[in-house]
Each structure stands twice: as C-alpha cells, then as structure tokens.
C-alpha cells in the first residue's frame, strides 16, 4: 500500500478527495443557480412591468421556477451547514413546488392534473410522516447486547 503520510494511507485518502471534488462541484453549481436566479428575477420584472399583463400563467410559472432555484440553493447551503448531509425535507419541498408548477403550466389534460395532484398528496403525506417520527434514531446497540 502506498503511504502518503504516516497516519493516512492511500485508501483513506480516496473519500477525502472525492468529498473535496463534491464540495467544489456544489459550490460551482450554487454559483450557476445564483446566476439563473438573478436572470429569473430580471425576466419576472419584465413580465410584471409589461403593458400587456394578460399572461398570468407565465407569471405564476416564473414565480415557481424562481422558488425552485431558491430551494436548490438553500439545499446546498444546508448541505454545508449540516456536515455534508442533504436534509430529506428539502427534496420534498422541491418536489411539491415542481408539481405545483406543472399543474399551473400544463393543466390541459385533466388526468395528468389528477396524477400531479396525487403526487403532491403523496409528498405531503411523506413529509407528515417524516415530521411525526423522531429525528434521533434509537440506539441499535441494545439489539446486539447479550
């Protein structure tokens, strides 16, 4: 085995290198999402201050797209604050927001709208179940005690 330092072997170094690559990639992703968030604000302002404010669907779709960008950036911030862990609730928030956006943008087919609504209900039920379960998991060492 190749030794890098006295205490750290090559095999122990691999997860640290991969974690660093992941962290750098997430920082770049957060910067790209921030740029897209600002672009969405500019588009939102253009739609808001146009003379013809008749396309309310486009207005609502852009608001929800803004919140999707915002939630992804918030999730990346939480990832770094919570010691490299993505909280599950943020994925549920993003899923619910994305489904609401789909309903607003693509509501021409009633069956699809019903399916999107059922998906939202399932996500909300999952969020409810997640909130009623304790955050701290019970110690599983009692199972192995003799």
Short description:
The protein has 146 residues and is an all-alpha fold. The chain has five helices and no strands.
Topology:
Blueprint: H1 10-48, H2 56-81, H3 88-105, H4 110-132, H5 141-144
Helix pairs in contact: 1-2, 2-3, 3-4
Notable features of this structure?
146 residues, mainly alpha, 5 helices, 0% strand
Describe the structure.
With 146 residues, this protein is an all-alpha fold. It has one domain (10-134). 75% of the residues lie in helices and 0% in strands. The chain has 5 helices and no strands. α1 runs antiparallel to α2 (56-81). The chain is flat, with a radius of gyration of 22 Å. The model has no long low-confidence stretch (mean pLDDT 83).
- Unreliably modeled segments: none
Give the SSE order as H and E letters. Answer: HHHHH
Helix content: over 70%
Radius of gyration: 22 Å
Total of domains: 1
Q: Give the end-to-end Cα distance, rounded to a whole number of Å.
A: 38 Å
Total helical segments: 5
Total number of beta strands: 0
State mean pLDDT (0 to 100 scale). Answer: 83
Tell me the fraction of residues in β-strands, as a range.
under 5%
Which structural class is indicated by helix and strand composition?
mainly alpha
